[in-house]
Amino acid sequence: MGCFSCFESKEEERLNQSATDNDDRKDTAHPSHNSNISKLSSGADRLKTRNNVGPRRDPSAPRDLPDANISAQTFTFRELAAATRNFREECFIGEGGFGRVYKGQLDSGQVVAVKQLDRNGLQGNREFLVEVLMLSLLHHVNLVNLIGYCADGEQRLLVYEYMSLGSLEDHLLDLPPDREPLDWNTRMKIAAGAAKGLEYLHDKANPPVIYRDFKSSNILLDEGYHPKLSDFGLAKLGPTGDKSHVSTRVMGTYGYCAPEYAMTGQLTVKSDVYSFGVVFLELITGRRAIDSTRPHGEQNLVAWARPLFNDRRKFLKLADPGLQGRFPTRGLYQALAVASMCIQESGAARPLIGDVVTALSYLANQAYDPISKDDRRSRDDNGGKIGRSEDGVGSGRKWDLEGSEKEDSPRETARMLNKDLDRERAVAEAKLWGENLRVKKRQTLDLEGGSEKDDSPKETTKILNRDAERERAVAEAKMWGENWREKRRQSAQGGNDG
């Protein structure tokens, strides 16, 4: 997993000559000594020169400058036109804010997806270069593979591996009546894989990469519904050193942007976590982040869902009706707990994406069988039972799978994540209390014994009772710990009833 050093601010400005003066110019460079992608900016300069983007160099200079870190292949426009049959409509597979996407076949026989950038669209030269560089330097099973690019004259095209199942949006939102919706297990698998892609960008890249445009249409699906993140034109290098955020112009998609980023332009990895929470809510509910066709009050997914998180009796209303009740009640509550934490108003209150991966890996490794008769649906209303898969390794966090269903609200599930830590703290405090009591008793005995003879009848009586006092102290400590745990249990139960 390669690390890479930050753009120098001046070099980043050269990548974005058409951007506003306030755009992305406060970034500082913190080179990574162990980086194997240490010439990102110089790679951008070579890429611009090679493809007539930006100032030309001496015509006598060799065109194939050694870009050791840029593995993307270059294509001519003629080659890609031939691959897509001159961009015929029968090859058209999708369209976004950056341009149209076509299915094509290279001379080698490889099937590819060719994205032709709209010259009047959202993605300009800078975004084109960023996407080429990012996808050339970052490699992960949950990131789409960039095969090559074309920059002939004013033409800007990107060539990706072909993702046969299209985007998550195609399989989740606004499905026709005759189309089978994604089942619960597949939804959790997609969520976990997409989270792992974000985790790679946030935690493995150095400095971190902030995706900035996480949404269902940017999650592509391969055979077996294996998810990969695509469209890195808006990706941004994250804060380094003691900086808590980077300041940039607000980009992204309405409904998915974190509130602090939308209002201030301050971008952190927690901004991506918020966007992930919105997509995860889409997976759970089957609703769009923004849907103007719904009644007033339900058009914004987050605004509609937040009040429901506070009423346990309404949790089942958050499940996608297309699932027709084929989901585990406990799994739904646990998924809602993760989503609710991701969409917190305050970025500081949101979890790190690594913690999200831990929780979702657990959920994805649970085998829910809607046909099984042991799902206790008769006792759980519309619920189900989660069973551990044979190869499921869980999450590292401990979930109380034997507890009462009514305690599985998002808030209670969040408490459950720390239950073991609380128990250990209670035991430690009880032991400390008992030890302090014994020390105090011992000091008292020593002070009293100092004024008497060691063989006096009074001292002998104290010695005979010392063991009994020690046992009494231990018993009191155990009782204190048990009372403390019972009080915590009653408090948590009262929170659920409220």
What's a quick, concise take on this entry?
Helices cover 40% and strands 10% of the residues. It has helices at residues 9-15, 40-50, 77-83, 125-137, 168-172, 184-204, 259-264, 269-285, 301-308, 329-342, 353-364, 410-417, 419-449, 457-497, and strands at residues 73-74, 92-96, 99-105, 111-117, 146-150, 157-161, 209-210, 219-222, 226-229, 236-237, 246-247, 266-267, 366-367, 387-388. A hairpin with a 6-residue loop joins strand 5 and strand 6.
The percent of residues in helical segments reads 40-55%
Count every helix, treating DSSP H or I runs of 4 or more residues as helices. Answer: 14
- Which percent range describes the beta-strand content? 5-15%
Question: What is the number of beta strands?
Answer: 14
Supply Rg.
29 Å
Query: What's the main sheet like?
Result: 6 strands, mixed
Mean pLDDT: 74
InterPro entries: Kinase-like_dom_sf, Prot_kinase_dom, Protein_kinase_ATP_BS, Ser-Thr/Tyr_kinase_cat_dom, Ser/Thr_kinase_AS
Family: Belongs to the protein kinase superfamily. Ser/Thr protein kinase family.
Binding site for ATP: 115
Membrane topology: Lipid-anchor
